[in-house]
Amino acid sequence: MKHHEHFTELEQDQLDWICRFADRLRLDDARFAADKHGIDANEIALRMWEQAEWRTLSPEDAAERWLRERQVQ
Question: Other CB atoms closer than 10 Å to residue 48's CB: what's the count?
Fold first, then answer.
């Protein structure tokens, strides 16, 4: 992904992780693929980024784990 010159490397890493997590939600769950749910995927991704245990996972693995955990509930 192209780096934006106004972001620090940490900010760019955060943005990349959040985008990739949200993209995985949209790919793996049709409920998030609809335009009206795109914001939801981004908000979930941001909440997960804010939790250190999730941030240690790749965004794709984190999204898959998040979806699995929701299926169990």
Answer: 22
